[in-house]
Design brief:
18 strands; alpha+beta; single chain
Length: 640
Amino acid sequence: MSKKLLITEKPSVATEFAKALKINTTRKNGYVESDDYVITWCVGHLVTMSYPEVYDEKYKAWRFDTLPFIPTEWKYEVIASAQNQFNIVKSLLLREDVDTIYVCTDSGREGEYIYRLVDAMVGVKGKKKKRVWIDSQTEEEILKGINGAKDLSEYDALADSAYLRAKEDYLIGINFSRLLTLTYGKKLAEFLNQERAPISVGRVMTCVLGMVVSREVEIRNFVKSKFYKIGANFEEGISAEWKYDAENQNNFKELINVVEKNNLYNDNGFKIEEDANKFIEILKLQNPKGKVLEASKKTQKENAPLLYNLAEIQNECSKRFKISPDQTLEVIQLLYEKKLVTYPRTDARVLSTAVAKEISKNLNGLAKWGKDAKIKSLLDSMIANKYSTDIVKSKYVDASKITDHYALIPTGQGFENYDALSDLQKDIYILIVKRFLSIFFPPAEYTKLAITVDIAGQKFYANAKICTKQGYLEVIKEEAKDDDSKTNVEALSKIKKGQELALTDLYTKEGETSPPTRYTSGSIILAMENAGRLIEDERLREQIKGSGIGTSATRAEIIKKLNRIGYININAKTQVLTPSEKGELVYKAVGWSMPDMLNPDLTASWEKGLDMVAKKEIKPDEFMGKLELYIRSKTAKIKR
């Protein structure tokens, strides 16, 4: 009787698959078995790329004359610590009674790579191979994944991309680490008073180091400067600020010499206090009054932000709980394995249409749970107010913005595991649930008031914004940020266009420029997601999406590695990143020899190339050809 072999990534996942299939299994050494199924696991990677000395002993010593090292035939080997499990998996793959193999490793590029390496090492022939691709570990999703499993060959392009990613990291790491160590290592060791100082270079890691050091240099070189804004107070209880308007300067000749562009700070102030005071003196000589040129009152609606992807939740947890990105991923991975949330390593912040059409299942599951009082009250509010759950045509659903997996959301299942969670795990779960529920609530509403006042031909502006309806803010519990006090709002709301205002005072407001802020372990993840550009405003991040540096699955580990090898420091209390002395010296060495390795755009373009291979937009040979050319040209330049 033929059997089906399921290959997962760890024993706990194998257990969930057995439960979903409702089969009685017997526990064996490294696998479980029933009448129809055999389920085993890979415990992460079982096979890895061989070091250069495996190709030839001469590569063991680091020498210029052996670089660049670019194999024509790649060699792989079983990881020594995983040899036992590899032997078990190999024996199962080759069993005569196994006719179909279901690949159930993680549904992503790295999970694909884990199995493909094993398959190639074993040399599996003559069996059906199916790929199980799932978004959560609920029984329903597992069964859907098995029943709808596609032929493994349909994922060959993804596998090509995975192999190329590994080769790229290997070639850049091996060649450039050796090159820079041979070039600068001795001097670096002497400077640091160390016996040896090997320099570690990585495709993504070195670029991220560059981001941290560059920001630190900006801060170090920053010189604070003062600026002076012009304000006006009126008897009517409002205040307004002056802003430069080029069209109006000819109306007032005396101001031309004072209001020159190079004297101004950001068009709404002066660099020199004397100029600001002179500006006020000239205005006062006109016995000015205020005349309202424009007065507007608008209602602004603001929808809930998009759902979490891994980068967004890592940034949020870094700010809120002061934990590192890898700690956040560890927690969410556990929540995923406990069936509480969907797949964590996702770049998407939206849902697919198919998921959106069945989203009531997730909501109903949460409603039946009722363990958290706040979540229960929010769901009760949704029901009482008859909020729509039809989000198919909303901004939260967009298949074009999904690659492998949709956004991180609660499954509405797995609650039997909730009580055993730690407080931090519960807090992060509730955070995900609240973000999910917020998209079903109405928008927050604001009243925005704005007036433009003419004072002796110069324009002054006053604005106010106040939240009138909480909407989704009831869920996320952000404080509704009003721009001004209620008093100012009430005063502004009474002002009419054409009205004359009684000016009581013209004054200067001193300010001071601020240096850039250091990256935190969370904000650096967001910057990596957007090719080195940190976009602070979440609303803008929804609109701007560049090619990322690294992937959602690897970014946290890169930060962790930079810290582990002593290139950056992470403040445990604040999660603020600073470069170490060693990190700054390595940054300088890279900058002297191969500065483009510090360029986020270049690093992002390599990642974009891998994505194009996965999408069959370019052939693997084309990518590999460009990579080899890059390695050879950089090596030749440094050798010279």
